[in-house]
C-alpha cells in the first residue's frame, strides 16, 4: 500500500493531491487568474502560490481523512515550469517531508500528466498527445522511456490560445482556453490561417503573429470574434491531429491519450476521435479535474516511482525550469 | 562599482530548538542562488542559530537576494506552524 501526497505549482495552477493505492483521496486546486489582456508572470504567480499553498495543503489533508504518519512519500513538481513558482512549492514539500520524516521525490511534470491520464482512463500503452499552456508534445513509450516523437518548435499550443485570448481581451476566468472554446462554438465563417506542420513537429508562433497582426482588420471586415476563435481552433487542432495520427501509425498503436490543460477542449477531443475511428483506435481523454494541472498527478506518478524503488537524495530536491520527458527512466513500467 | 563582491551582509537567525533550526537550514541549503543574481550566499548552522553571509557587488542585487531569503524563511516557519512540530529528532532519508 502506498499513500502519496503531491505538490504541483509549475504554472498558474496550485494543487495538492493525495492518493492511496491509485485511489484519489483529495485533489484541491486553485488558479491564479489575471485580468483580461494580461498573462501571468513568474514573480506574481510565485506570490500567489506562497499566499495559498498552506490553505490548499490543509484542505487536502482534511479531505483525505488520513493520518500524516501513514503517508509514505512526499512528491513535488521538479520541473519543467516557471522557476519561482516551482521553488515556492518545493520549499513547502521539503519542509513537510522533514516534519513528518518521510522520503521526498521530485516528479517530472509531463510524466505526471501521462501517468495520471493512464490511471484515470485505463489506457494501457497509448500514443500520448500532451497539450498545455507550456508544453506541446507527441509521446510514445518505448524501452523504459516516454519518447518524444514530435513537439512544438516554438510556443505551446495553449500559449498560442492564451495569447490570442489577450488580443481579443477575453476573460481568463476560468481559463482563456475554455472561453475561446465556448466562443468558437458560435463561429461560422472560417478564416484561412497558416498551417505549420514541419515533419513531426508543429509551430504556433507564426500563426499567433498572423492573428495578432490581422485581428483588427478582420473584425472590421465583418468577421466576429467567434469566427476567429473557431478558425484558430480548427487550424491548430488539425495540426495536432495530423502529427498524432502519424505517430500512431508509426508505433502501430491502438490507443490515443490526450493529456494537459488543452486536452479538456471538447472540440480537440472530437476531431481526435474522428481520426481514431478511421484507424480503429480508441481515444482516451479526461475532464478538467485531471487534465488541468493538479496535485494528484504528481502524487500518483511519485507513488509509481516510489513503488519501483526510486530514491532521491535530499540534495537533489531542487527544481529545474527545463526537464524533458525523455530524461526520466520509467522504472515502474515493465513492458 | 567594480565587479568584485565587496559588499557583505551577515545575518544570524535564532530558532526555538536545534531540530527546527536544522530543518530550516536543510530546506534552505538545497537551493542555489540563481546564477544571474550576482550574489553569493553562504549558509551555516550552529546549534539553534542559522548564520548566513551574502556578498555581492551591487546593493540592488543584495536587496533582492535578501528579500527572497526572508520570504523563504517565512514560508518555512509558517509551514511548521500549520503542520506542527517535527515528529522525529532527525531525518532518515538524506
TrEMBL record, chain A:
It is found in: Cytoplasm; Nucleus. It holds the Pfam family TsaD. It is an enzyme of class 2 (transferase). Keywords: Acyltransferase, Cytoplasm, Metal-binding, Nucleus, Transferase, tRNA processing. Substrate binds at residues 130-134, 162, 177, 181, 265. One of its GO terms (cellular component) is EKC/KEOPS complex. Signal peptide: none annotated. PANTHER family: TRNA N6-ADENOSINE THREONYLCARBAMOYLTRANSFERASE. Belongs to the KAE1 / TsaD family. This is N(6)-L-threonylcarbamoyladenine synthase.
Automatic annotation (TrEMBL), chain B:
Signal peptide: none annotated. GO terms for cellular component: cytoplasm; EKC/KEOPS complex; nucleus. Pfam families: Pcc1. This is L antigen family member 3. It is found in: Cytoplasm; Nucleus. InterPro entries: CTAG/Pcc1. The keyword Nucleus applies.
Amino acid at each position: 500500500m502506498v499513500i502519496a501526497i503531491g505538490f504541483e505549482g509549475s504554472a498558474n495552477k496550485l494543487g495538492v493531491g493525495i492518493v492511496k493505492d491509485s485511489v484519489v483521496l483529495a485533489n484541491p486546486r486553485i488558479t491564479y487568474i489575471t485580468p483580461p489582456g494580461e498573462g501571468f508572470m513568474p514573480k506574481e504567480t510565485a506570490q500567489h502560490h506562497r499566499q495559498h499553498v498552506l490553505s490548499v495543503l490543509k484542505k487536502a489533508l482534511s479531505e483525505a481523512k488520513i493520518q500524516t504518519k501513514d503517508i509514505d512519500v512526499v512528491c513535488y513538481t521538479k520541473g519543467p515550469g516557471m522557476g519561482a513558482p516551482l521553488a515556492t512549492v518545493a520549499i513547502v514539500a521539503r519542509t513537510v517531508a522533514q516534519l513528518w520524516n518521510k522520503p521526498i521525490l521530485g516528479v517530472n511534470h509531463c510524466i505526471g500528466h501521462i501517468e495520471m491520464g493512464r490511471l484515470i482512463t485505463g489506457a494501457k500503452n497509448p500514443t500520448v498527445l500532451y497539450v498545455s499552456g507550456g508544453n506541446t508534445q507527441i509521446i510514445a513509450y518505448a524501452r523504459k522511456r516516454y519518447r518524444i516523437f514530435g513537439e512544438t518548435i516554438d510556443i505551446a499550443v495553449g500559449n498560442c490560445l492564451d495569447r490570442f485570448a489577450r488580443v481579443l481581451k477575453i476573460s481568463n476566468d476560468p481559463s482563456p482556453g475554455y472561453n475561446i472554446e465556448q466562443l468558437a462554438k458560435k463561429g461560422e465563417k472560417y478564416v484561412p490561417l497558416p498551417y505549420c506542420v514541419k515533419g513531426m513537429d508543429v509551430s504556433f508562433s507564426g500563426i499567433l503573429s498572423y492573428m495578432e497582426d490581422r485581428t483588427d482588420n478582420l473584425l472590421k471586415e465583418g468577421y466576429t470574434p467567434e469566427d476567429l476563435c473557431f478558425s484558430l481552433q480548427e487550424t491548430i487542432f488539425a495540426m495536432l491531429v495530423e502529427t498524432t495520427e502519424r505517430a500512431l501509425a508509426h508505433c502501430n498503436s491502438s490507443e490515443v491519450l490526450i493529456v494537459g490543460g488543452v486536452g479538456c477542449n471538447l472540440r480537440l477531443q472530437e476531431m481526435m476521435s474522428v481520426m481514431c475511428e478511421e484507424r480503429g483506435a480508441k481515444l482516451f481523454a479526461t475532464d478538467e479535474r485531471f487534465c488541468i494541472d493538479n496535485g494528484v498527478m504528481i502524487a500518483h506518478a511519485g507513488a509509481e516511482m516510489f513503488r519501483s524503488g526510486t530514491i532521491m537524495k535530499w540534495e537533489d530536491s531542487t527544481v529545474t525550469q527545463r526537464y524533458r520527458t525523455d530524461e526520466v527512466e520509467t522504472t515502474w513500467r515493465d513492458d | 562599482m567594480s565587479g568584485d563582491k565587496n559588499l557583505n551582509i551577515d545575518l544570524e537567525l535564532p530558532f526555538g530548538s536545534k531540530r527546527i533550526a536544522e530543518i530550516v537550514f536543510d530546506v534552505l541549503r538545497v537551493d542555489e542562488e540563481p546564477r544571474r543574481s550576482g550574489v553569493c550566499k553562504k549558509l551555516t548552522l550552529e546549534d539553534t542559530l542559522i548564520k548566513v553571509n551574502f556578498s555581492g557587488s551591487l546593493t540592488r542585487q543584495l536587496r533582492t537576494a535578501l528579500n527572497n531569503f526572508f520570504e523563504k524563511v517565512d514560508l518555512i516557519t509558517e509551514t511548521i506552524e500549520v503542520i506542527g512540530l517535527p515528529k522525529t529528532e532527525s531525518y532518515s532519508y538524506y
